[in-house]
Structure formats: C-alpha cells, structure tokens
Amino acid sequence: MTELERLNRITETIIGAAIQVHRVLGPGLLESAYVACLAHEIGKRGLFVEQQRPVPLVYETVKLECGYRMDLLVEHSVVVEVKSVEALAPIHEAQTLSYLRLSGCKLALLINFNVLVLKDGIRRFVNGPI
C-alpha cells in the first residue's frame, strides 16, 4: 500500500466517523463535544487517535511551547481540526494549514459540524507531495 492509499483510507475512516457523529448529534453543540465524540468514534473504528496534541513552534533553533494544540491527530499522520461555527472562515483554514506545517504531517481535515449536511463542512488540505 502506498502512502497516499494509506492516508486516503485513514481520511475515509475519519469522515465516516464524523458523519456518524453528526447523524447522532446534529449541528448546534459546542466544539468540545464533537471533538470528544469524534475521537471516541474513530477509536471504535480501530484507528489510534490523540486529543489536544501539543504543536511546538520552532523559530530558528529555538523550540517554543506556545500552547498550540490540534484537536485530533489520527494514526500519527492526519491532523483533524473541528469547528462548530456558522461558516468556515479563512482564519480556520489558516490555523489548520499552520498545524499541518508545524506538525510535519502530510494531510489535514477541517470539519465544521454546524452544518445541515456534513459534507458541506469538510475541507481537506495537503502539505506538499504525498
């Protein structure tokens, strides 16, 4: 299996889990509820998931712990940022891209649960060639 195939399988599993969470909970809850439920659902599907994973910032040769935390890191490979907002804004995409770059991961999903149809709230980002 190639790296791209592996990452695609992981993201398919994450999106399936997110759809299940959205189907059960619907829109309108706090982001923290969706993060916890999505982590639980991803774990049930057999993937390793970490919540609130610290993201260090390296400036020149200095490693800074600035309090940045990605919502979920799945299989040490895919960053998942969860939102529950009226509409995704450029700042949400910028935050996700920053976490993707700082973590060194190749793929990220930005998922907004505050939508009627979840597929309308999912954005996929790639960090360089896979």
Provide a descriptive summary of the structure in words.
Helix content is 39%, strand content 27%. The protein has one domain: 3-Layer(aba) Sandwich (Trna Endonuclease, Chain: A, domain 1). It has 130 residues and is an alpha+beta fold. It has 3 helices and 7 strands. The longest helix is centred in the first third of the chain and has 23 residues. β4 and β5 form a beta hairpin. α1 crosses α2. The protein starts with a helix and ends with a strand. Strands 1-4-5-6-7 form a 5-stranded mixed β-sheet, sandwiched between helices. A two-stranded antiparallel sheet has the order 2-3. The model has no long low-confidence stretch (mean pLDDT 95).
Lateral arrangement of strands in the main beta sheet: 1-4-5-6-7
CATH A-level architecture: 3-Layer(aba) Sandwich
> Structural class, please?
alpha+beta
Radius of gyration using CA atoms only: 14 Å
Distance separating the two termini = 13 Å
Task: Summarize this structure as a short list of keywords or feature phrases.
single chain; 130 residues; alpha+beta; Trna Endonuclease, Chain: A, domain 1; 3 helices; globular
Give the SSE map.
Layout: H1 3-25, H2 31-44, E1 49-54, E2 57-59, E3 62-64, E4 69-74, E5 78-83, H3 90-103, E6 107-112, E7 122-126
Parallel strand pairs: 5-6
Antiparallel strand pairs: 1-4, 2-3, 4-5, 6-7
